[in-house]
Design brief:
InterPro entries: Plexin (IPR031148), Semap_dom (IPR001627), Semap_dom_sf (IPR036352), WD40/YVTN_repeat-like_dom_sf (IPR015943). This is Sema domain-containing protein. There is one protein chain. The chain is mostly beta strands and 429 residues long. The chain folds into two domains: 146 residues, Beta Barrel (Lipocalin), CATH 2.40.128; 243 residues, 7 Propeller (Methylamine Dehydrogenase, Chain H). Strands 20, 21, 22, 23, 24, 28, 29 and 30 form an eight-stranded mixed β-sheet that branches. A five-stranded mixed β-sheet has the order 5-2-34-33-32. β14 and β15 form a beta hairpin. The longest helix is centred in the last third of the chain and has 16 residues.
Length: 429
Amino acid sequence: MKKRFYIGLFFLIESAFNDQQLRAPSYNYVNGIFKAESEIVKHVVYKDKILLGLEGNITVIDQKLRYSYSVRSNPDSTSSEECYPKSMIVYSEGRELILCCTSNKGSCHKRKLNGRLSLSDDYAKSEGEIVPWTKNSSCLMVIAKGPGSRTYAYVANTLPQDTDVQLSVVSRRNLENFQIVSGSFFFDRPVLQAKKYNDPNADTFEERNIHFWYIKTFTAFNFVHFLVVEPLRLSSYNVFVTRIQRICMQNKNFNTHAELDLKCYYNGTEHNIVTSAYIGRGGEKLQKYLELPHVEPFSDDALVLFATFSRSAPFSAVEQPGSAVCAYRLRDIRKSFTKNIKECYNGIGTWGPDYFTSQPQNCIEHPEKIDDTSCPNKNKHILGTQPLVSTTQLYIPNHIVSSIAVTTVDKHTIAFMGTKAGIILKVSI
């Protein structure tokens, strides 16, 4: 029997909080159901349509979840290889869909959104090795400005463990042919190998199963950000933390790449694995509480990163049931990066992390003036020593939240959270 995957609009749990934990009666509001024949991997909303990236095809449904049509996602009509979606994004002012998938060794192509998703007029088969070609590898893409005020695709990838090919971790790519343009960095392959049994005299090596997982990407203040779960360091590669990677859009060679730890605490306990995130504004009450602008015109200073975290099992990146919801003002993220970069330029800390360079170096003291808009490049791959910390009273017991979206109703902030068990929670923050 085929396994079916469902979208239901909406199955909600109307949520109320008491004693800092969820006490939720459940109500069913089912306005429509769509049954997919295979896993729904990616989706985007375009006007009044929902585009579902399934294994092998793109399926289009309407807002009432009624089937419209499907197209084969592999653009090569002569190939029998299935296209497992890694990234779907609307581009060119809503005229095109960029689809990246596992076929042709991790390739990307563009389709017209007007009509039935036919290939774009400037379609050219990409050469691959743009995104991971394995199902169990993460991938994020965001469209943003770069050097010369041109528009590029920024792509972040998990390293496939089954190949010696160097796949870029983060790259800036031309939107015409998806080739790397003046900016990328890679994992340092030699430092990902460890002598077996930690025996310094051993002659054989084994590849460390380094776990990286990209969760969210966003742009703010002329920087591109990636939210990622990664090892604390290579010497503790089974201890995991959540970090934000940041790149200056105008830096050609990504020398301004920096990282800092993002921490979320509930009831005095750190929840170290980020599971979902959303960038947006809260309602008037929350904006005032956070001392953020609550009336137009709005800027990046008014935005909040809402993120859900779970605790990991010991020596593992596997999430444990129970999710904490933390909020971070984007202005605090910017100031935290500024603080950590200033430290490095005062000679405190190291370049890193150590899986990007085989010889991490101490930060070099330099008189360059650092402020919130700076893109200094004398120190590379800065790993901040001071984390950004949030403490929350909002906790979802017994559930692992896998997606979150936030909206406002009157003056209130409403979060919709999907769980790994297939439940949607509606929560007033």
